[in-house]
Amino acid sequence: MTLLLDNEFQPLPPDKAVDTKLFLETVSHLPSFFDCLGSSVFGLIKSDVNGNITKIKAVYLKDPQRYVTLQDIVEAEREAHAAQWPKIGATLALMWLKRGLRFIQVLLQSLADGEKDPNNPNLIKVNVIKAYEEALKKYHGWVVQKIFSAALCAAPYRSNFLKALSKGEEAKEEDCLANVRQFLVNYTATVDAIYEMYTSLNAELDYTV
Amino acid sequence: MTLLLDNEFQPLPPDKAVDTKLFLETVSHLPSFFDCLGSSVFGLIKSDVNGNITKIKAVYLKDPQRYVTLQDIVEAEREAHAAQWPKIGATLALMWLKRGLRFIQVLLQSLADGEKDPNNPNLIKVNVIKAYEEALKKYHGWVVQKIFSAALCAAPYRSNFLKALSKGEEAKEEDCLANVRQFLVNYTATVDAIYEMYTSLNAELDYTV
Ligand SMILES: CCCCCCCCCCCCC/C=C/[C@@H](O)[C@H](CO[C@@H]1O[C@H](CO)[C@H](O)[C@H](OS(=O)(=O)O)[C@H]1O)NC(=O)CCCCCCCCCCC
Ligand SMILES: CCCCCCCCCCCCC/C=C/[C@@H](O)[C@H](CO[C@@H]1O[C@H](CO)[C@H](O)[C@H](OS(=O)(=O)O)[C@H]1O)NC(=O)CCCCCCCCCCC
User: Fold this and answer.
1) Can you list the domains of chain B with their CATH numbers?
2) Residue limits of the Glycolipid transfer protein domain (chains A, B) (predicted)?
3) B146: which DSSP letter?
4) Exposed site from A155, B29, B146, B184, fewest CB < 10 Å?
5) Pocket lined around ligand 2, Cβ cut-off 6 Å
6) pLDDT digits (tens, 9 = 90+) for A170-186
């Protein structure tokens, strides 16, 4: 089966509360997404994302009964650390994690929508740049933006990337894209719900690194 | 006291065997060296170096009596994992860690020797580039080399960097440099000893990332 659909996200309940345990289980398979990108350059980004997940999990495990939804965690930290919140704890880790998740979402959506550079149809640069601009760029100072541009040269070819997402399978491009589309349904809903939660709790920050 | 001299390396014994416990204790203070560099850009490098240290420590703690020196660890892994060695375990972690240590050594030595760009005497670019070329460049493919060039823009000013190395103190430049020189004595001897051990055990690899 495909890397993506093996670890599909669950549909959200009507109130769009994200179940912490399910979220952590599913999301912890995503860093291997970066292995699909093929270059060791992405190993360090993977550690950053893994670090976010580890931090949220550590808070959750302190009191699973109390932290049933992600919002429970963010609200509890707002109470406990009023002065530094939201730049603290799992609230900060999830703030950054959601940006990485959004990056992946926009990249996959753009591929699924067939967006291509007509002159280089087998490159995914346009899709990666779009994802970067929508999810991360405004939180990066100019040095990190320059690092991103350099790292872009390590982006894999479209065909190899799609094959890697369906690892093992000898999948046709159309089948890969169908998998991507199916994966995106619950995934996008989950990421959107986390963004909405940050907006409604006024937990979003826009400092740059 | 200074960041460097608070955690000075011990002199080596005559046989130049590096004591594992002392090495790990001292070296675990070094990642804060990257905080002196001032930019969040270096946080990810710090995690890579910390990862190396954690890996070596985990092996050591499995049997401290057996792994008294770093060479004991490397030799034990050569026996235990003949097929994959040296690209495995603490042997691999120390292979990379020593390159980061060499980078720091060459950078500090170059500052201590007063090497400067006459047109930009308060920039440390020439020193950082020298350290990169001697310690890391040949192990980095062209994308990572490009990332290095981008990251170089985040290098701090010479005066700020020297002040950060003597954190807290209102130290004069000459005092800071004297501290650096004293730190380098045992530090350089330790790093050299690890390099010699890798050469004599034929444990060095030159693949690029
Ligand atoms: C020696 C030679 C080389 C020298 C130089 C090398 C320098 C390399 C540095 C590159 C940096 C770029 C990526 C990392 C950026 C990270 O700095 C940011 C902020 O990171 C957050 O920071 C917080 C504090 O402000 C907390 O510590 C968070 O941690 S906490 O859990 O403790 O709260 C942490 O995630 N994360 C980000 O920007 C997130 C990045 C997600 C990436 C998503 C996919 C991108 C794929 C790109 C494909 C083309
Ligand atoms: C989203 C936007 C941004 C997108 C893109 C961001 C991409 C960022 C990627 C930057 C990569 C550069 C630095 C990291 C390089 C690392 O890849 C290498 C090899 O790392 C080693 O790899 C081994 C396997 O081959 C093991 O996993 C080792 O791990 S193991 O412990 O498991 O065995 C591991 O250390 N370490 C290195 O090259 C070592 C680097 C030491 C640095 C020393 C100081 C440099 C200071 C520079 C000052 C100017």
Assistant:
1) 20-201 (1.10.3520.10)
2) 18-166
3) H
4) B29
5) A 40-41, 43-45, 136, 144, 147-148, 151; B 45, 48-49, 51-52, 55, 92-93, 96, 99-100, 103, 128, 136, 144, 147, 151-152, 155, 209
6) 678 888 899 999 999 99
Q: Are A183 and A8 in contact (CB under 8 A)?
A: yes
3-state secondary structure of A19: strand
CB contact under 8 A, B143 and A149: no
Q: Which amino acid is at B56?
A: I
Which member of A40, A43, A143 has the closest CB to residue B150?
Answer: A143
> For A80-95, what is the mean pLDDT?
98
Partner B contacted by A47 (CB < 8 A): yes
Closest to A47 (Cβ–Cβ): which among B41, B47, B209? B47
> What's this model's pTM, rounded to 2 decimal places?
0.92
Residues 6+ apart with CB under 8 A from B188: B105, B109
Below-70 pLDDT ranges, chain B:
1-2, 168-170
